[in-house]
Every structure is written in C-alpha cells, then in structure tokens.
C-alpha cells in the first residue's frame, strides 16, 4: 500500500471496527513508523478532540492523544466532527494547534534524524541519491543550528525527503509549480512552499529567501 499511495491516513474509528480496540494504538504506531521510513505523509484522525463537539474545552486525555500522535511521527492531525458539527470549532482548532506546537518543541530532532537514517540503512542497505543528499543537508542543518532549510525543487520530491529526515526547523520549498507548492506546503511536515517564476537564478533566490526569513523573525 505504501508503495502505491501518496499518503496514509490512520483513521482510528475505522480501525477500531476492524481490529480489537486495545490494539488500535499498536496499529497506529506501526503505520506511522512505516510511513515515516517510506517518506510518505501520514495523517492521524478520528475522535481526537471528540468531547469538544459538546464542550468548549477538551479532556486532558484528548490533549495527550493529540500530542502522542505528533510524537509518534504524524505529519498532520485531523479534526472532523469537532469542526463540522460542534459550535466550538474555533476553540478546537486552537487547542489542537497549541498542543501540536508543544509536542513538536519537546522532540529531540538530532536523535530522530539518526533513528530515521539508521532504520533506512538497516532495512534497505543503502539510500537513493536524493535521499542521501537530503540526509546530508539535514545533518548539516542540525550541526550548524541553521534557522531554516531552503529547498529548490520542481517536483517537490527533494522537499519530501528533507522533511522525512526531520530537521526540526522550517523547510522553505521554492518551486515553479502551483500544484507542487500546494501539495508540499499543505502536508509535508515543516514545509512552507512558495511558487517562483523560475529556479534558474539559484543564488538570488536563496539570498532573497534568507532576507525574507530575517524580516519575518525566523532567522538572524
């Protein structure tokens, strides 16, 4: 399935109908890990803040569930009934966003990078050229404590590989394709994609991106 698909959704409600409920968490962790190693985006969904359909505040267990989904390696977490049916949709989105930020900030990205890299080499014996380039870029970003990673990509594949190795800082993807910008910026972990007219003048693009990052306060 991972080889054929563009992304994976872990729908715990449906899983709970197919397998015993006490095994859903194991399936969730397994599916997320496999998607992470394959470099495919993975979304965790269903009943994440279910009580907020009726209440303006979630339970502590629900917040922990969202945080654990992020710590497991989810690229995105999804609300459904909380925003479709309930009157507290805005509060639900804000609570989920704050919880995700807290979870992201608590991760050790140097260890995560090494874990992903070691697992790939252990399983497949080698990396593709693009994977190796992305791995080296992320290692360098971590070592020098870079503020952002800038990726120039026509297909979005390089941005996906950089995201796969989890650098723990924003990834700016510059692409001439509208569809790639929408897809990369909407789903790949930590990727912010922008459409540019051309990638020919790489030096100017990188310099301009650096200046804009400084203006936005995310780089020095």
Set down the secondary structure blueprint.
Layout: E1 8-11, H1 12-18, H2 24-38, E2 42-45, H3 60-72, E3 76-77, H4 81-84, H5 89-105, H6 109-124, H7 129-143, E4 149-152, H8 157-164, E5 171-175, H9 178-187, E6 191-195, H10 202-216
Parallel strand pairs: 1-2, 2-3, 4-5, 5-6
Helix pairs in contact: 3-5, 6-7, 7-8
What does this structure look like?
The chain is mainly alpha-helical and 220 residues long. The chain contains ten helices and six strands, in the order βααβαβααααβαβαβα. The strands form two sheets. It has a three-stranded parallel sheet with strand order 1-2-3. Strands 4-5-6 form a three-stranded parallel sheet, with helices on both faces. Helix 3 crosses helix 5 and helix 6 packs antiparallel against helix 7. It starts with 7 loop residues before the first strand and ends with a helix. The relative contact order is 0.09.
Main sheet characteristics: 3 strands, parallel
How many helices in DSSP terms?
A: 10
What does the overall shape look like? globular
Give the terminus-to-terminus CA distance. 43 Å
The H/E string reads EHHEHEHHHHEHEHEH
Helix/strand structural class: mainly alpha
List keywords for this structure.
three-stranded parallel β-sheet; mainly alpha; 6 strands; 220 residues; 10 helices; single chain
Tell me briefly what this model is.
With 220 residues, the protein is mainly alpha-helical.
